[in-house]
Amino acid sequence: VPSDGFDAAEQRHRYARIELEDRLVLPDGFRADLVAVWGDPVADGRFGFNNDHLSFLSLGADRALLTVNFEYISARAWRQGYAEAVGGPLPFDAVIDALAPRGGRVDAASLAADDPLRATIRQLAEAAMADLGVGVIELERQPDGPWRRRPGRFDRRITGLSGWRDPAQRLGTTGPAAAVFRRRERLGYDDGLGDAIIGSFANCAGGETPWGTVLSAEENMQSQVAEAVHADGSSVSPAARPFAYDGQRLDGLGNPFGLAGNKYGWMVELDPRRPERTAVKHSWLGRFRHEAVAVKAVAGQPLVVYSGCDRHGGHLYRFVSDALIRDPADPANSELFSAGRLEVARFDPPGPDGGEGRGRWLPLEPTAPVAPLGPGHFARFGVEQAVLLPHSDRLKPGAEAFASDAAVAAYRRLFATLADLYPGEGEERMGAILIDAHLAACAIGATPCARPEDTVIDPLSGDLLIAFTAGGGSDDGRADPAIFRGPKGQATWPYGWIMGLADDGAEKAGAFRWRMVATGGAPWQGGLGFANPDNLAVDRLGTLWMVTDRSTKSADLDLFGNNSCWVLPSRGPHAGEAFCFATGPMECELTGPCFDASESTLFLAVQHPGEDHGTRPSAEAREAQAHRLVDRSGRAFEQLRWVPQGSNW
Ligand code: FEO
Ligand code: CA
Ligand code: CA
Ligand code: CA
C-alpha cells in the first residue's frame, strides 16, 4: 500500500496502463510462479478446467497441500486446447454435426441403444466431467521461496464421475436429504443409488474448517442436471436437462449418465490429509447454487457455517449445529454437520441515515410460516412449484395470477406453513425442504440478495464479510432494492458491494446487524474503483483481498479493465480505500485467493483466460476484440497489447 495515498486520477491511469494486457500483471517487487495447469497429471486423473477456490493446508514449514475446485467447461477454449493439454482426440465435431438439426440438444436416453451418437455423446461428456470436481495436490517450498508441485500420496481427484465406474469412489450424504435419497416410493426420478452420489461438479467457491477439512461449494448445477424437484424432494427426469452445446458451454453433462438433479448443489466436505476417506455432501447446509462458505467455530458455541446462493435474488444462509464445539481443531467436529438447523437471512432496510441495518435469521423448518415478500418474488415461486406440487391442479394460473392480491391470499390459505408445501413426514419432509432450499426460503420471506459470491470471517472483529457481486435481476429473481442500492441510492447497482454482518448475542438469538463496507463502481460514480467483487480472503492484519468477476462480455471493459485482485485495508490511514493489486489476462477471472501459512505467498487461480477468443488469439480475433472495445467505449485502444503465452511467467 503506497504510504502517500493514491488519488483517483492515478488510479484511472493505472487502469489504462495495465487493464488490457493478456497476462497476469503484478506490482513491482512481486513475481508469479506457475504451480499447475490444466492437464497436469494428478493421482489417477488430471488437473481440471476453470479452477476456482484454492485452499492451502500446511504440512510443515516446506510442505503443504493445495485443494483446488474445477468449476465448468468453457467449450471453445476447452476444445481448442484439449489435444495439447490432455492428449487424444475428442469427438467434438461429430457431436456438433449431430446436434445441429436437433437445435443443439438431445436427451441421450431417447436415442436408440445402437445409435452411435449415444456412445459419442457419452465419450464427450465423460471427458468434460473428468475436468470438473475437486483436486488435491502436494506442494513443496523451494529453497529460493516459491512453492512447486511434488506429486505424492495425498494427490487426489474427485471428478463429476469419480464413482461411476468405481463405486468405492462415490460420495456420501449426511443429514435429512439422505432419507429422501433412500426412500422407495417417490413422485419423481430415482437413480437407484440410495444415499451414495457419483461425483461432484460446478465446484466454485469454498472454504476451510479449523479442523483441517475443506468445503467445496457446488454452484451452477442447473447447467448440468435439472434443478427443479418434486415436493417430496425427488428429482425430475434427467431428460429435463438434455445434453446440449450452444457454441460456448457444454450443458446437461449429467444427462448421458442419468444423474439425479437432487444430488447436486450441495456443500461437499473432504479431508485433504485423508485421501482414503470419502467426501460427503452435508445436506443440513441446503441445496441451492452454493457459493460462499465461512465457518465460525468457537469452543462452547454451536458450529455456525455461512453460505450464499449465487443467483439473482439468491439468499444468504447459515447452518447452526445442535451440539456445541469443545475443541475447534478436533476432526470429530465434522459430525456436527449431521444435526442442526438451516436458517436464511431476512434483511430490514437501513434507517433514514442509511448506515446500519438490522435483520433476522429465519429457520427453514416445517412450522415456518409462508410469507411472500412481494408479487414478483412470489410469482416466481408459484410458477415453479405449481408445476411440481401435487396441488398443481388448484394452482394452474400463471405468474400474473399469482401476482394478484386474490391469488396471493388464495395461495396463503392453501399454504400456511412450509409443511403444507412439503407434505412428507419427519426426516423425509425436512430433507425435501433442504433439497428445495431456494424455493422454501422464498416462501418464508427471505430477502432476495445481490448474488452472494463469497464470505469470510474478519479475524479481528469476528464479523462476517460478504461479497455481493451485482445488483439488478434476471428471470431468475431480483435483488431487493430496499437493501441493495448504489452509492448514490441507485435502485439497481451492477457493480456490487462488500457487506459486514454481525450476529447479535445469545440474548437476541437470530438477530443480526449489517452495513455496507465497500461499494463497487468507478470513483466518480461513488464507488471504490472495482467492479463485481467475487472471492475474498483476509490476512491476519484484517486486510481484505478480493478478486473481481465481471462478465467477459461486459460493455464496461474499457472502464474497469480485465478482472483484477484488490486490497482493502480495514484499519489504519487507508481504511475504506481500495487498491488494485493485480490484473489478469484477457477474458479471465482471478479466483481463489489464499495465503500460505507465513502469508509470504498469495495463491491465485486464473480462470477461463481467453474464454471467448482463445488464449492464443488469431489476428482476426484480436482485431475483433479491439474493435469491440473501440465500438463500445469510443476510446483509443493502443494499450491493448497481446503478449504471447509463455512469456507471462
Ligand atoms: Fe462460479 Fe458465482 O461464481
Ligand atoms: Ca467462475
Ligand atoms: Ca464465484
Ligand atoms: Ca462470479
UniProtKB/TrEMBL annotation:
InterPro entries (alphabetical): PhoX
Superkingdom of origin organism: Bacteria
UniProt entry keywords in alphabetical sequence: Signal
Pfam families membership: PhoX (PF05787)
Official protein name in the record: Alkaline phosphatase PhoX
Species name: Cyanobium gracile UHCC 0139
Lineage: Bacteria, Bacillati, Cyanobacteriota, Cyanophyceae, Synechococcales
